[in-house]
Amino acid sequence: MKQKKGIICPLFYVSGFMLNDLENLKKAALTKISEASSEEVLRAAEIEFLGRKGKLTEILRGLKDLPAAEKGKVGKASNEIKTEIEQAIIDKTKELESAKFDELAESEWIDPTQPGQEAPRGTLHPLTQFVREAEKVFERMGFAVATGPQIEDDFHNFEALNIPADHPARDSQDTLFLENSDGKLLRTQTSSVQIRWMKDREPPFRIVAPGRVFRKDDFDASHSPMFHQLEGLVVDEDISLANMKAVMEEAVRQLINPEAKFRFRTSYFPFVEPGLEMDMSCTICGGKGCPVCKKTGWIEIVGCGLVHPNVLKNVDVDPDKWSGFAFGFGLDRMVMLRHEIKDLRLLFENDLRFLRQF
Ligand code: PHE
Fold first, then answer.
1. Which residue CA neighbors atom 4 of ligand 1 most closely?
2. Domain ranges of the chain
3. Distance (Å, rounded) from C-alpha 83 to C-alpha 13?
4. Ligand 1 pocket, residue 303 CB under 6 Å
């Protein structure tokens, strides 16, 4: 339009020319808009025609140079075209948007009826399962469940259990002593929990204490420097070996094998008198003899006996009034017997192929 300034021409021509120009502009704009393949292209078209320096804006700016009679005509036409172009842009924007959603719906299609992805589920370790069952069995017989620290002191692990510093029984229970800890050690037996429980309470006592223990030992098919015990302690009036035998046999029958047979042999532990070991018939060979029971048909599972009077004295319980029994099940061995596991190391290797079977 600028070059038209100053050209002397008849007014009808001016307006006719401009109307024609506007018509072409509209066609060009509408074609560009309808052909726009993306939002960017559409925005560019909007700027080209309606922007501050856009083509239509330029025409509108030229209006002021027209004679009043023409101004109205051309102005009206320009405004109509502007509205038309604006509407076309709005429509096209919607069209592009809905195309985008259609595309998304196609590419991000989900089937809500498809079965979900299964989250892998863990199971309790066979030892943990066994401990929990054992706790239930003993709770039904009136026992409470007690725990004690794995880092123990000499008093609870040895001294109070009638194992003074020079006692040879310490040799078979060598363990790790912690540096700068006032002689703290990794406990070698859950019997330490007997002491902890009794020294703060008044009899009668009836507890079991499951837990981890540590000893200097090999790591092979039947040994581990870390293993698990379940301690039992009953202190009451008139407790005898008959009570002990009944409780222990009942627990093992419920936990491992209702048909199991038992045998008691005399043994020695400084904190019981008399001391015994209980064997059960080998569940793997049914008592016939196999490598697991070393061809004897019997497997030792627990040390036990009547609580030594010195132990009761050490925790201020009067041995003339109270008596009791104690036992220490070897949990790992019992789990092996129950599931017929032939190598102890399988319990500690965390191989999922093994653990998933329980
Ligand atoms: N604490 C003994 C051990 O570790 C087992 C035991 C417990 C024996 C209680 C008798 C009484 O071998």
1. 189
2. 10-106, 126-355
3. 25
4. yes
